[in-house]
## 1
Amino acid sequence: MSEQLSADIVVIGSGIVGSLAARRLALQGASVLILEAGPRLDRGRVVAAFRNSPIKGNWMSPYPPSPWAPHPIYVPKDNGYLKQAGPYPYPAEYIRAVGGTTWHWAAMAWRLVPNDVRIKSLYGVGVDWPMSYEELDPWYQEAEELIGVAGAPDTGSPRNQPFPMEPVAEPWSMRRFRERLAPAYAVVANTVARNSRSYGGRPACVGNNSCQPICPVNAQYLGINAVEAAEVAGAKVVPNAVVYRIEHDAKGRIAAVHYYDPDKGTHRVTGKTFILAANGIESPKLLLLSASDKYPNGLANSSDMVGRHLMDHPSTSITFYADEELWLGRGPQSPSSINTLRDGAFRSEHAPYRLDFTNISQVLSVTQDLIKEGVYGTEFDKQLRWRAAHQVSVKNVLEVLPDPDNRITLSSEKDAMGIPKPEAHYSIGDYTRRAAEVSKADFARIAELMGGTGLRYSAEGNFANNQHITGTMSMGNDPKSSVVDGFGRTHDHENLFICSTGVMPTAATMNSTLTGIALALRTAGHILPKPANAHAAVSNAEREASLS
Amino acid sequence: MKRMTGRPVPLLALICVFAGLYAGTAAATDSANTELLQRGQYLATAGDCVACHTAPGGKPFAGGLPVPTPIGTIIATNITPSKTAGIGNYTEQQFSDALRRGIRADGKRLYPAMPYTAYAQISDDDVQALYAWFMHGVSPVDTAPTPTRLPFPFNIRLSMAAWNLLFLDSKPFTPDPGKSAEWNRGAYLVRGLEHCSTCHTPRNLLMAEQSSHALAGGEVGTWHAPNITSDANSGIGGWSASDLVAYMKLGHAAGRAQAAGPMAEAVDNSLQHLTATDLQAIATYLKTVPAQHDPADTRAVDTWGAASNELDSLRGVALPSDPNKMSGAQLYDAYCASCHQDSGQGSFDGGLPSLFHNTATGRTHTNNLVMVILDGIDWPADGSGVHMPGFAQTLSDQQVATLGSYLLKHYGNPAAVISADQVKSLRAGGAPSHLVLLARLALIVVLLVLVAIIAMFMRRRRREAIQAEHD
């Protein structure tokens, strides 16, 4: 079992971010090897698992963890993989499989707003990014063209080129929200990696309303599409390769990585350049695991910042009955939102937020409520129909500030392969809690405008998590306070780069995937600069492959 | 021949027209010229020249598309007005000869991959408009694609002269005075520019269309071009003219069929751009094409099947770990049901087609069902329109066979089946043609016969000589 693997570029992690960086580098002519801890999945089998499962509401259920590469599971009970050190729970979900966590996501592909990268200068909170929004714009555009983003122009994120696609058709429920909340609130179509028409060899959304746990028709761009694009470009993927150590040489350059196969056979992979792209939890875990005599605190960690500044997007919400039939559940799960509160002078006082409307079918949750209430018989049918038609929900998506005490560390517990589990230390600060209080007025106003009855606010002090893992390997210009530089290169190791939402210094109010991809493409472009005339997002080779 | 004698006049007229244009004098000639070019462009669209003469991603009409044929791959040529790489030096007569007789300007023969046997029907007026447009409406491209190199004996282009003698009817279309103008227009388009028979008429051993079975269905590589005669079961006899027009305009006729493969290309490149009048004319004519009945079609091919499902057999049952052991119902549930719905009924508006009452599942000839599962549907070429994902990379030969047979049994003609070997062969590009081998064998036989004849002749001469000596 000691075949020698080697490549110009070795990428650890096959998620959407790492795979798109791998694709770009492979198109440049580099030999690229992607190591993925989890197994390769087949979309059809995931679809079948979901369609035939009695558990429809838990989006992790079609993705059981593999024994050699476990990931956190909380339903029906916590599998104890992501240890919780408190004080506030951080029940992050992610998938360790070829393609990564975007096997299931809402396909939200938001850009930041320009001021998100300057909140220290402008509002005296958080930190500034080592780049401007304008510098990110072309990389956002390249990312959007690659993954096929549909969006409305008026979301607060300026752009120089149009979206690749017009927005996905607006569901009836969202149309009614838009009409009834105007002019108090502008409800706009979400910016999503979901096809509103055929694009990239994938069909348009047909409204299965199961974006999570799985888009069954490939209308939504998934990590597995990125993997396949990387493979078409020439990258090789090794599944079931659980990297447990990154090896450096005497000068501090990375020489190799070591992985276990599922039988715990060991393998060493050498390369010229290494990219760590194993998400914001597994990546810092691996850096900490790779401690050596020369680097006793782990690799890339001379600043002691690896794992720190863990951020996500906590949410509070309101659920109520609108005074008209809206029938959530037709079209994508998350079609529209309010974006006017993403930025403003108030950011010196409290977090900004986005207000997001769910469009998930209410039949399941209403049924569960009615059973709990003891309703049965014809009254059950009547109530089910009425509530499923009228029940709606709005949540906020709150920014959290980077806090060094919010962090990922190594647990003393080990997984089945003998590798320490990650441990989360998390709390939700006052800056965020104040915004949750402020947003209650928005919830009340929205309910009022929709003729809402039966108002139910989420329980006081309870925040739902959004699985937007950010911050644990922050980028910055100062090697003393950050892990990577503005191009994703670790300050401590010349040939180790990080492509991950974990490098984002702040979390802003937007789902982090698109920014993660844009930063990764920028990193790839820094590793191997592309001639200006070869900047096509989709290569001819790929076009031909998609035609064949 | 009338065509020959008629030639100089329109050519002269054309020269005058362009002279007028360049001089910028007469507005009337300008508009006549514009009209001529527009008509030429429309006719070129009807002829679907672009389908073969443009490579994917290449410049229009610059050639380069490899066209696989049973006798080898033919590379489509550059037909832009480039004087170095295209047809820029062609006279109208040379253009006409290439188009309608299969003879290039240098006198060499074209292979009948170029449908000159159909284009022979084109009228002199239309040839003139086509020539005008190709010379002045198309941008010249000065790069020549690699020349076609066929295996022996087909590399001898002169062999096509003999083929033409046998199979080329070079008489232009003559209207049938007993039929309506609409019918005649339809017949002219179907037999000529649209060259429907090129795909839809079966071919004999020498790859010539069997005119006695016109439009009874033919093979186009791995795809089957179905029977489009007026037979009620096997053909389009049960279709209304508006069904046919919808199919040609939109690529699908609700509750009947949808275009895929080469037919989707024909709709994309050509048919959808025709005027409503011309589409109506084509429909009118097709409805009168003599019926060709396949006894296997015991009912109309678009009336098989009904909504049904086997969901009860799936719920709570774990998928087999070996993907090849998945049942048809399991495969349908995993890969098809999210669009075509639980019972194969498609979407309420027909945007996602029903799988029953659909020619895709109603024919005993099942290659198209396999091909659409493997390749999907994706047109127009910019990917903005109709799209069904292909499953060539996802499903094994066995899985496609299991799934396809399940679809036929539940939603289509239950007498039809799909085998894993069939899928394997189609995935690999179809059954190999033995035409090259046959031609070579035939040549060897001819040579042997010739040698035998010569030997006999020599022997006789010797015997005669010996006899003469003895005399």
## 2
Amino acid sequence: MERNFDRRDFLRLAGLGGVVFASGLAGCASYGASKTSDFSFVQLSDSHWGFNGPAINPEAGTTLKRAVAEVNALALAPDFIVFTGDLTHTTDDPQVRRARMREFRAIVADLKVRDIHFLAGEHDASLDRGAAFMEFFGPTHYSFDYRGVHFVALDNVSDPAARIGEEQLAWLKADLAGLSKQAPIVVLTHRPLFDLAPQWDWATRDGDQAMAILLPYENVTVFYGHIHQNNDHLTGHIAHHAAKSLIFPLPAPGSQPKREPLRWDAAHPFQGLGYRAVASTGKDVPLSISERNIAPG
Amino acid sequence: MKTERRQFLTAGTAAVALLALGRWAGAEAQERVLSVVARKFVFLPNEITLKLGEPVILEFTAFEVVMGFNIPALKLRTDIVPGQIARLRLTPAQVGSYDFLCDNFCGDGHEDMNGRLIVVA
């Protein structure tokens, strides 16, 4: 069943309590408006389930659950949800890792929207090359199509050296090969695919190779996590958008000597924590992006 | 990455470049050797002071998991594999302070595994 909301509806319904702007996929009309249709999705990221640090987030045990409740209460229910990594906080103990993934999975099972696409973060996957993640959430890289938009999930974390790797890069090239250069493409990943702040490990070692594969395509937008804050960047015509975290915010890239988590502000609980809603109206307009904050209280 | 190989970091590519010199079997007697241990989740030492123009060899060891040593501003890095000595040879070409970090995810605390290389006149 087709959704009958337009961009104005999305701005009104999804933008409440958040910041709305437009990005990417402009030019979809030239690809063929008949091939795309209205839909929206929500991006959740970096919940680090299992993290324990009362000075940083004394509500670590409830923040993810609050996000689930807020998404369930959205006036405009998303068609699907993407979760861009660091679902769990890392641990050296494989059994604890699996216990955290089991608990995480039980919490997000309360989401009314059942179509959820999971990606791994380095906290989930780098110590066992994604073994536990795959047991619980499936492959670490894949693609799917939704209403005329091609989605690609890239894994830049299962290799602890933050490489996508030659095999996956070849897969990416082959996956895109059948698409028109005007096809609307959304890339989901955990780490930035560009050198945002390499001194803080905010980069993908072979991200430039992924970008070289993506750049010939005219309508590409990248959504990622890892840096625990909103950040917008352009590589040529390709926009990259980082999402907020659901556990603690981090300082702006390179703004201080160390990338230490920002401490909890009791006067402004949940400040800097949130998620985003994205809408495609399938016409000659870019994506509408609504940045939302976890509500206090 | 084989760090014994000739490595070039040309000053022309970055204002803060260090110059890697010669082949490994070169004039070792003229080079000061500095040992750096990488362990969860710290480099020992985590502050390395070098003199401008002094050729040095950094020798890295790790005992737990594969670590990485990376100075992004200088585009200088090596893997540190347990049981092997990783070496970087360099001659500081410009006074300054350069952050380094472990760039192989090694566990809870990886994000704190960093340090600073300081080049003094």
